[in-house]
Design brief:
335 residues, single chain, 7 strands, globular, Nucleotidyltransferase, domain 5, 3 domains, two-stranded antiparallel sheet
């Protein structure tokens, strides 16, 4: 006899979580509010009826520990983006109890718009690769502050302030801000070196990243970041969906017989879009075939759009490399 299925809606917050359990007929069997964390999840599991359990929750910054705990307990987890269900569940009354019930009901009806919930190892790789982006951005902002103060004070040095020689020269000035700034720059540079070391170790044990690094314009770091941001390639049924996810595909609007091709999507994976644009610039510089594609497109659509087009073509080839597990694909200049 088939086990009954029960649907659990969870409205997860930093401190407390509201749950709602319904059966296959949509009847509410249990509503509980418990502290967010493993202890609260275990308390909920003890009160669940026997059967198969499916859980729905909205994506947020604090939801992944709950997802990991549920998966460790053998419970199927379905995550959705808040904006994806907003138009479905929009109402004048909004409480945690109602949100949990609506999530459970959408899951029961098979109408829950699902979002990708990466496993723990993919999240760890993303966090490591994104950590380097954060350090470099902070270094750039802090470098600009130091340069502004140097111009204000009329101080100049013979090397770039990001370099070791530059930070040593800053330490030799008599300005307190510049001396303290040199120490901050040194700390940031040391952190970047440590992250680069860890990324190198990950790269050496990641066949997918090593495969991508064989393409022109893609190095160790960019390959690792691309693999981390894509996650499971099989969640994209077509290369066009991956391009849209990366914000490299133009939007299309159709009304009657008129079709409008617009700008690329703003809501996208910004890290994947950024790294693909960087890889496209390097590939245009160093690979003759890719440079030919760029030079053919640039006079017609402009330089910036041509770079995006090259990045989209490169991402399409990355898609098929990961999908087919082949070391190479068709020539980039093919249409």
């Amino acid at each position: 006899m088939k086990n009954p299925t029960y649907y659990i809606g969870l409205d997860v917050h930093k401190k407390m979580t509201q749950s709602c359990v319904i059966n296959e007929a949509g009847e509410v069997l249990l509503e509980k509010r418990f502290p967010t964390g493993k202890t609260g999840i275990d308390h909920l599991v003890k009160h669940l009826p026997e059967g198969d359990w499916k859980t729905a929750l909205e994506a947020s910054s604090c939801v992944y520990p709950t997802i990991d705990t549920l998966r460790d307990r053998g419970i199927n987890v379905f995550m959705t983006h808040p904006t994806a269900v907003k138009w479905i569940t929009n109402s004048m009354k909004k409480t945690d109890q109602q949100d949990a019930h609506k999530l459970a009901e959408l899951l029961r009806l098979g109408a829950l718009p699902q979002a990708y919930a990466p496993p723990r190892e993919v999240r760890d790789l993303r966090n490591l690769a994104r950590e380097r982006i954060w350090y470099t951005n902070e270094r750039t902002k802090f470098s600009n502050q130091i340069l502004w103060r140097m111009n204000l004070l009329g101080v100049s040095i013979g090397h770039k302030i990001r370099s070791q020689k530059g930070t040593r020269e800053l330490e030799q000035t008599n300005e307190g801000f510049l001396i303290r700034g040199s120490k901050v720059m040194t700390a940031i540079n040391d952190s970047i070196k440590q992250v680069d070391k860890e990324i190198h170790e990950v790269f050496q044990n990641n066949p997918q990243a090593q495969k991508l690094a064989t393409k022109p314009g893609i190095g160790e770091y960019s390959a690792t970041l691309i693999v981390a941001e894509i996650g499971d390639i099989n969640r994209f049924t077509h290369s066009k969906k991956l391009s849209a996810y990366a914000g490299l595909a133009p939007t299309v609007r159709q009304s009657g017989e008129n079709t409008y091709i617009g700008h690329t999507r703003r809501r996208c994976n910004t890290q994947l879009k950024w790294i693909m644009i960087q890889c496209a610039h390097r590939a245009i510089q160093y690979d003759p075939k890719i440079r030919e594609v760029y030079q053919r497109l640039a006079p017609r659509i402009g330089g910036k759009k041509a770079v995006v087009a090259v990045a989209r073509k490169m991402l399409t080839h990355i898609y098929w490399m990961l999908k087919t597990q082949q070391p190479t694909v068709a020539n980039v200049s093919s249409q």
